[in-house]
Amino acid sequence: MPDSRYYLTTAIAYANSRPGLHTLYEVVGADAITRSHRMRGDDTFFLTGTDEYSVNIATTANRLGKTPRAFVDEMVELFRSAEGALGIAPDRFIRTTDPDHIRAVHEMLRRAYANGDLYQGTYEGWYCPNEGFKAPSDLIEDAAGVHCPNHPGVELQWLTERNWFFRLSAYQERLERYYAEHPDWVQPEYRKNEMLGFIRQGLEDFSVSREKAPWGIPFPIMPDGSSSQLPDGSWNPEAGTVYVWFDALTNYVTGVGFPDDPARFERWWPADLHIIGKDINRLHTIMWPAMLMSAGLPLPRKVWVHGWLLVQGERMSKSRGNFLDPQAVVAALGSDGTRYALLREVAFDRDTDVSWDSFVRRYNADLANDFGNLVNRTLSMTARYLGGERVPCRPADETPLAPEWRAARAGHEAKLDAFLLHDALAALWEFVGAANRFVDAEQPWVLAKAARDGDERAAERLRGVLGDLLEACRLIGFAAAPFIPNTAPRVAAQLGVPYPYAPDGSVGPRLDGLLEWGSGPRGGRIGTPEPLFPRLETEAELAQA
RNA sequence: GGCGGAGUAGCUCAGUGGUAGAGCAGGGGACUCAUAAGCCCUUGGUCGGUGGUUCGAAUCCGCCCUCCGCUACCA
Q1: Per the count of CB atoms within 10 A, which of A304, A409, A434, A542 is most buried?
Q2: Is residue A299 part of a domain?
Q3: Cα separations (Å) of A355 from A181, A273, A325?
Q4: Above pLDDT 70, what percent of chain A?
Q5: By residue range, what is the domain housing residue A416?
């Protein structure tokens, strides 16, 4: 029985169009972290999903002649299938339109109200009749005045609404204290410092409801404080709808049973890790904790803020149109190839410039040439020189590979614990390099020739060397499994060793034990070698051909 | 404007006082088990500029230039 639990989340993706690779990047990273916890024996819960309410989505659906619900259903299908193609295995895919989420949002608001943190006020700003209220930063201002970038011909109105506000201003000191007492709760460090700076500038209350945005969760409280639920169970439209913050952020508690299943919620909350993009840092590390404090709930243990994928220095995004289609990348690199290229090529703690070419280069260099070829040459030599006998490795104190493994494994695990996934893979691949150098240093083909000529010592050494290499391949395959979950079982099968984990990484023994040098099963035969990661032709090579 | 960060080989970056590094890309070589992969060697940088501290600075301090992040109602 696992003795520790681990709950992690991604941000929920805005379901306003098909998913881009940049959106899924975060989910792939979270999935790799999830699998590493499952395989180390933690009882793990991984939540991801979609954010489906907004004026924007209702407008888009309307333009397409669909109901908002039908539209988001289609978008969600695209997200789920793209995630499936990438081997993402969440324990729950949450949608903000899920019925239990509505109950959770209502409960969070009731608690905030009961705590005196909600009050009625007026919100005013530019209002686009097609999209609703617009932030000043989202508007274009020129000689003709202010207008909406999406609807330049539509005249904006300066509207005032009566809205509910959340008393964020009351939480400044509590937040500062929490940051002081939990110095690494937001990481990387520089992201925490940005938020601290923001808090110290002073916090303003924010509005949490909208009067004129029907595609949203009904606001549960009437202006007089009474419930907005009508006798027939429906909600009074006069109460308006819940605005984005409570609607979206609350998903993290909904996902683990709030408020329907107190026992389950007690088990999983607080989350161990929220993984988010830098653009929503403030929501997660200032507004969300204040909302939780107001509700009397503990705060997540850590928020990790990753950067963006850049294309020639510009943020990859749907609106810029410079995003990669995840399905197209998977078609080219495969599911695991895409996962690896993403997580190795993109630094998890900052922005990184990427390109199709950078992914292909990374795939070819690390997966096809270094790791895939290592496995292939090891198996091929075992088949040719030893008739496919799966010879055992030498004891750790009799092979130079064992100390190399110890060092690489330590580096890998340290970086993984620090959420530096790219560095974790780099550390592991140090050992791939060491194993390849080991082959050339030992020259098994020379040993094999000598053995054929009757050299007993050469025959013995050949068995030891290939045994070490088979072990090296096994160790790399298992250690890399959270990153390349579809390939890891294939590596095991080719090596002729059992793969004791379920497809989502659960069930099996603690990975720790399997990562000890010499812990593989003895005896048996290898499977059939076949390339794990076929080499891709680069665009330059294709042009020459 | 305020606060913070960064400018090091073609590219991505490591390197916080003591003779400039890694990976990838480029060039050469020896081998042959392998996915024409791997291995070995190698080209390449006045470490943004400038002044200073020091026996000695990419590394510390001042000034300047350039770029970037944060600076609230977008999901």
Answers
A1: A304
A2: yes
A3: 41, 29, 12
A4: 94
A5: 356-544
